[in-house]
Design goal:
The structure holds 2 protein chains of 2 kinds.
Chain A (H helix, E strand, L loop, with lengths): L11 E2 L5 H6 L11 H4 L1 H14 L3 E3 L17 H19 L4 E6 L14 H14 L5 E7 L2 H14 L4 E5 L13 H11 L3 E5 L4 H12 L6 E4 L5 E4 L2 E4 L3 H13 L4 E2 L7 H11 L13 E4 L4 E4 L4 E7 L5 H8 L3 H13 L4 E4 L8 H15 L4 E4 L3 H10 L5 E6 L2 H14 L2 E5 L10 H17 L7 E4 L11 H16 L2 E5 L10 H14 L4 E4 L4 H13 L7 H7 L16 H7 L2 H12 L4 H21 L5 H24 L7 E8 L7 H12 L2 E5 L6 H10 L4 E5 L3 H17 L4 E5 L5 H6 L4 E2 L3 H13 L4
Helix pairs in contact in A: 3-4, 3-10, 4-5, 5-6, 6-7, 8-9, 9-10, 12-13, 13-14, 14-15, 16-17, 18-19, 19-20, 21-22, 21-23, 21-24, 22-24, 23-24, 24-25, 25-29, 26-27
Chain B lengths: L4 H7 L9 H17 L3 E11 L4 E3 L2 E3 L2 H7 L2 E10 L2 H13 L1 H29 L4 E2 L15 H8 L1 H5 L2 E2 L5 E2 L3 E9 L25
Antiparallel strand pairs in B: 1-2, 1-4, 2-3, 4-8, 5-8, 6-7
The chains are: A alpha/beta, B alpha+beta.
């Protein structure tokens, strides 16, 4: 009988700890436990058999760490371990003549995924795929002890795409209900339910008492069977040995409470023994199981937290979108991702809960740009993202590599679109925005739009996508083109909410298209829509009037307890602008003092009087030189140097904008390639050098950190680079710097290399063949300037 | 943890000189927000130790390092520990780099000082549990001739990746980057010549060196 038929209907018992028992049987610290499948199969068969005799129904094979990274150099393959381990379980089942399921145990790879670590999502996926394909003969997969939601996503996808077997996922939370990578329980549940796993729960890290305390947080949001496999308490070191102290009887007594509180599968982890399981089975087997109920939550998540719809309205920031924004389009064409990421941070700081991400431009490779944008944003913000595209390839790529359960913008009632989008949502999970339009366009009546919402809800059902994962957009049309446009949208909004009980979303700002002072109308419409029960608005969170409409609505309509959010937001704010008394600084002084705001104002003023080149050569550069000299003479220090650099950047940007407005292009000096070498992840030094070089007018091509020599060489060739700047922090990565220089000298004749980084010295730089060593950022600028003046670059 | 502002400025290259007001304010505001941002974690383990004429033996590792030997001579046991401020520390610097590179540099220094402060806290915790015994200055792989390759020993003996979420890259760098591994010798006798900071490092011209 497939275990899926029993899940949630009867209490199922997992086995208990394995590693701790293997240690008692001769496994030494640091040895791979998986090798005992070969060296001591009799020990494993005995332990498995003892668990079966204790009443365990799921027996996990000894494969937790059997992945390509941990087995490297062990002399055995993933496949060999898998087969030996599964055989040991099967032998134990045969020996006991009892029934048990063979679970294939999968644990973390032991490597951190990007952006924090070095492993790519696809590499992690491939490693897990190898494991899944090796697990012939297993009856289910048990993914255990994960602490990173991104890694568990790669593992779950590998199981789902390469096997039909059921899978349970248990995570190792700390006593505060947080994973090592920051994820909380609701975010884990959102992701895993979205991916369609068969059971979710806790294992390892904690004893049964603490898991019991965390259990309500899990059961309140989880709509699939719950697994709880605790340790036998917290580890204690006695005479150099790690021991777990909770007795089988005490363990089982808490497990009774755990089952009564909603667990459907129970067993043990580190320190638990067949005795713990036997006692647990004895005390728990007759307890009535908590039925599984759909919690009906509409939720999206990031790698740290979930955002739930339906109670307090949600703000979705709309700014990451090229529509109607020349500067944004330019950023996309030039792969200026920093510009896009800054938009993300600014919206987060303005109060957005979710960020819409639209990078659609006909001339770019959208799947690739979407991937870079999504992963880059997730490196700097933990807000959930709304993937906004009509390009299905870009959508799938983004849903796959997104760390969490995304919001998807959007599907509509066109059959072709539904056929393409619904399968992706079923596979990866997600909350899907449903636009009420179809092949015939947007219905002109509320009833028409409600009918389309019904069509999409019904079609989604065919795929097994529940209503809670749909959010209906009844479409905002400009009130200037039809006086009943607002009413139709709002009537439809109320209609779908009342009839179908679905959540709703609107792109709000369309309402004022074609009207003057748009924010006035937009804010009022936003308030009306919120009053009609709008769950989320796609808005510009930097718009003061929209956000004040939002905070006011929440305070007025019981969405803001004691008006605390409103007070926090506005108590410090001035109710009216106050005349500012300040002395005006010259551009030169603004840069020396590192005042960005006044540098911008001074530049604007100067531009009305003098030519831009005059300003640059006689104000900006002299000021930067003074600061640079001060830095070298140690009369001022790095933060001051950088504040001045920022002020200068602002001034340059002001000049550039003016030049562009007048149809002139700003002149740039020769391009310099800059990168942190392969294997090195410390790149702040490189980023500082980049800012300073840009200040002095160089075009800087930044390849980022952990860059392979081949990529540096290729870019140097493609962009005709004369000067390459490389950074490395550690002795272990300087070898890669040396290799990069070697390859550059070979393939790019005449190229000049300059190096820097904590571990480097002049001597070291000479040894690896670098042309120039700089001990600090200013030295790099001086060198580049010298080369430029000599005409060498 | 108590972040030492003097340390922050030392990392920023002030070499004992007074910081300017703007930098000081930037450091203050970051230090104040730090508790909400970072999630410090640590793991430690005490192991018996043998110091022979030529090496230091910890568990199965036979370490040939004169500097480490000098540090641990006279100790019967050693406490290995690993500490991290978590991934949020790295994210903070990345975010700052996008909005203000000056703030990023100060954040980097504040986080480095916070990492040291956290290690000091762990040091004190060990000291308080070792009443009547004496602690040697903490020593990390990569100091003097104690090879960086011994990072792998720390990772194995402490199970660092599972316990506190720090991983070791192929180039032996730790990620998240604001992480430390170190060992502390436990001795029943005090030595007077234990140089707490920088004393074992040969990079005499280093601008970050103590005792400027």
């Amino acid at each position: 009988m497939d275990i899926r038929e029993k899940l949630g209907k009867e209490l199922i018992f997992f086995d208990g700890g394995l590693g701790t028992l293997l240690q008692k049987n001769g496994l030494k610290a640091g040895e791979l436990p998986e090798l005992m499948n070969f060296s001591a199969p009799e020990v494993l068969v005995k332990i498995h058999a003892d668990y079966i005799n204790a009443g365990a129904q799921i027996i996990t094979a000894n494969t937790f760490g059997a992945n390509r990274y941990k087995l490297e150099g062990s002399g055995v393959s993933v496949k060999e371990v898998a087969q030996a381990a599964i055989n040991n379980v099967k032998k134990a089942i045969a020996l006991t003549k009892k029934q048990a399921y063979v679970a294939y145990d999968i644990g973390p790879l032991g490597k951190m995924l990007r952006p924090v670590g070095e492993l790519s999502f696809d590499e992690a996926y491939e490693a897990y795929k190898e494991i899944v394909l090796a697990a012939q003969g297993a009856e289910l997969f048990a993914l255990e002890t994960f602490t990173d939601l991104y890694e568990v996503k790669a593992a779950v996808l590998a199981v789902k795409e390469n096997s039909d077997l059921p899978l349970t996922v248990t995570l190792a939370f700390d006593e505060n209900g947080k994973l090592l990578t920051g994820g909380d329980i609701p975010s884990a549940v959102a992701l895993l339910e979205g991916l369609g796993v068969d059971a979710i729960g806790f294992n390892c890290g904690l004893g049964p008492e603490t898991m019991l305390e965390l259990l309500p947080e899990l059961t309140s949001c989880c709509s699939v069977p719950v697994v709880i496999n605790p340790n036998a308490g917290l580890p204690v070191v006695e005479n150099g040995q790690t021991v777990f102290k909770i007795t089988p009887d005490d363990f089982a007594k808490t497990m009774v409470e755990i089952v009564k509180s909603g667990a459907h599968l129970v067993g043990g982890c580190c320190g638990t023994t067949p005795a713990h399981i036997e006692r647990t089975v004895a005390l728990c087997k007759d307890i009535k199981l908590t039925p599984i109920t759909d919690k009906g939550l509409t939720v999206v998540s990031s790698y740290t937290h979930a955002v739930t719809f339906g109670d307090k309205p949600v703000i979705i920031g709309e700014r990451i979108n090229p529509t109607g924004k020349a500067r944004f389009k330019q950023a996309l064409r030039e792969s200026d991702f920093e510009y896009i990421f800054k938009e993300g941070i600014a919206q987060e700081e303005s109060g957005a809960h979710i960020l819409d991400v639209n990078v659609g431009l006909p001339e770019i490779d959208e799947p690739s740009v979407m991937e870079t944008t999504v992963t880059g944003l997730q490196a700097i913000t933990d807000l959930p993202l709304q993937i906004d595209t009509t390009n299905i390839a870009a959508l799938e790529r983004a849903m796959r590599i997104y760390n969490g359960k995304p919001m998807i913008n959007s599907v509509n009632a066109k059959q072709e679109v539904m056929d393409a989008v619904f399968p992706l949502v079923k596979k990866y999970g997600g909350l899907l925005v449903c636009l009420t339009l179809d092949e015939d366009g947007i219905p002109q009546t509320a009833e028409g739009r409600i009918a389309l919402a019904r069509r999409m809800i019904n079609e989604a059902k065919k795929y097994g996508i529940e209503k809670k994962n749909l959010i209906v957009d009844t479409l905002t049309m400009s009130v200037s083109t039809g006086s009943d446009n607002a009413k139709i949208t709002l009537d439809a909004l109320r209609g779908v909410r009342e009839r179908f009980g679905v959540n709703t979303v609107l792109g709000v700002s369309n309402i004022s298209f074609g009207l003057p002072q748009r924010e006035r109308i937009t804010s009022s419409f936003f308030t009306l829509a919120l009053y009609e029960g709008l769950s989320a608005g796609i808005v510009n969170p930097m718009s003061e009037s929209l956000m004040s409409a939002y905070y006011s609505f929440c305070a007025l309509c019981e969405k803001d307890d004691k008006c605390l959010s409103y007070i926090e937001k506005y108590s410090g704010a001035q109710s009216a602008p106050v005349a500012q008394t300040k002395t005006e600084l010259s551009l030169y002084d603004s840069i020396i003092k590192g005042m960005a705001q006044s540098a911008s104002e001074a530049t604007k003023k100067l531009l009305t009087e003098r030519e831009s080149l005059d300003i640059i050569n006689n104000e900006l550069i002299p000021a930067l030189d003074v600061v640079g000299k001060g830095f070298e003479e140690k009369t001022l220090f790095l933060p001051q140097l950088l504040m001045s650099a920022e002020a200068a950047s602002v001034a340059f940007e002001t000049i550039r904008k003016t030049l562009e407005k007048n149809g002139q292009a700003s002149e740039k000096k020769s391009p310099i390639l800059i990168a942190t070498v392969k294997g090195d992840v410390h790149d702040i030094g490189k980023n500082i050098v980049k800012v300073l070089l840009s200040n002095y007018g160089f075009e800087v091509i930044d390849l980022g950190k952990d860059v392979a020599p081949e990529k540096i060489v290729q870019t140097a060739i493609d962009k005709k680079i004369r000067l390459v700047a490389l950074s490395a922090l550690m002795t272990t990565t300087v070898v890669n710097m040396e290799e990069t220089i070697k390859q550059l000298k070979k393939s790019v004749p005449g190229v000049i290399t300059m190096v820097g980084g904590a571990v480097l010295t002049q001597e070291y730089a000479d040894m690896i063949g670098a042309d120039f060593y700089s001990k600090d950022a200013m030295g790099a600028v001086r060198f580049a300037n010298e080369l430029y003046e000599k005409g060498e670059i | 943890m108590k972040v030492d502002k003097k340390e922050v400025f030392r990392y920023l290259g002030y070499s004992g000189r007074e910081a300017d007001l703007k930098t000081e304010q930037l450091a203050d505001s970051l230090i104040e927000k730090l508790p909400e941002i970072i999630t410090p974690r640590f793991v430690l383990r005490e192991l018996p130790l043998t110091v022979t004429d030529e090496s230091v033996i910890i568990d199965k590792y036979n370490i040939k390092s004169a500097n480490l030997r000098a540090n641990l001579t006279g100790c019967k046991s050693v406490v290995l520990f690993a500490a991290t401020l978590g991934r949020e520390a790295d994210t903070l610097v990345k975010r700052c780099e996008l909005t203000s590179i000056a703030k990023a540099a100060v954040a980097q220094a504040v986080l480095s000082a916070a990492t040291e402060a956290y290690c000091d806290e762990i040091n004190e915790k060990i000291r308080s549990e070792k009443q009547g015994l004496f602690l040697r200055p903490r020593f990390s792989a990569g100091y003097g001739d104690f090879l960086l390759e011994y990072q792998e020993m720390f990772f194995e003996l402490l199970d660092i990746t599972k316990k506190i979420g720090v991983t070791l890259t192929n180039e032996l760098l730790m990620v998240p980057t604001k992480s430390v591994t170190a060992l502390i010798g436990i001795s029943d006798s005090q030595r007077s010549c234990d140089n707490e900071k920088c004393g074992n490092c040969n990079k005499k011209e280093c601008e970050f060196r103590y005792g400027y």
